[in-house]
Structure of TRAP transporter solute receptor, TAXI family:
Amino acid sequence: MKRGTTFLLAIFLISSLQAGEALAKRIYVTIGAGAVTGVYFPTAGAIAKIVNKKRKQHGIRATVESTGGSTYNVNSMSLGELDMGLVQSDVGYRAYNGVGDFKGRKVGKLRSVLSLHAEPFHIVANESIKTFADLKGKRVNIGNPGSGQRSSAEALFTVTPFGLGDIIVEGLKASEAPDFMADGRIDAYFYTVGVGSANIMDVATSHKINIVAVDDDVVAKLKKGRPYYVSAEIPGGVYPNVDKPVKTFAVKATLLTTTDVPDDVVYNVVKTLFEDLETFKKTHPVLNNLTPAKMLEGLSAPLHPGAEKYYKERGWVK
């Protein structure tokens, strides 16, 4: 056999072995998002896309699932059906600590990966509803069971002048609410989501709506004993017919995982994302102002060791 042919054969065999090794250690990571009309779905999609760009280096293939939201994602991670999930900070807090709707079923293996954008609590109402008091007796979607907005709505009504029993409660998915609103089948809906969500923008473009404020005194009561809530403001001019800022409260969107996911997998996901952070920030307006410091705020469970390792390498945590 000629020397050149032998050399080419050797290169081919080495390449084949390397490819085989890469296939052998390929790891699939499934990320739970939310409704396709919300912010979680494109955000999770952007994370997966960035991770997958480097899959030849780390062997990780990320996929995204549209789900029922934060509580669904936590429950699915606890069962091993999801590897990671986007979860509101309040839901993550209750799940990790076994309080509220997670009383008696603590998910102690939850771990934080990183924090994302703030998610203001939107009260989207038809134009006849001007104030929170106007919701009394109206048909209001507070979110499907297991969703983050339903959890927030239930907490909110514990500190408001009237309770859930004073409205006609609907339990629709976030993706269903805009059509029900447009058809007049509901008068308002709650949605905890990043500002500018298509879920709200679509109905606001075709119908006159109001974004109803949550008064400061109500927010102050809500925040007592609930460290995951912050005061917030929805800027004016984002949604049609909503020209002035609207006061409300917010949670943080967080990426969670569990202790079942290996350290090196979480490390590589985090490393890959931060190395391409500028690209990630451009994928959705709510991500524009992210910084490494902000992405370590509002975490509702201990850091996963894989994430912590990367943050220590960068000097972001001690």
User: Anything to note?
Assistant: The beta strands are 27-32, 60-65, 84-88, 110-126, 139-141, 168-170, 188-192, 209-211, 230-234, 246-258. The chain has a mean pLDDT of 90.
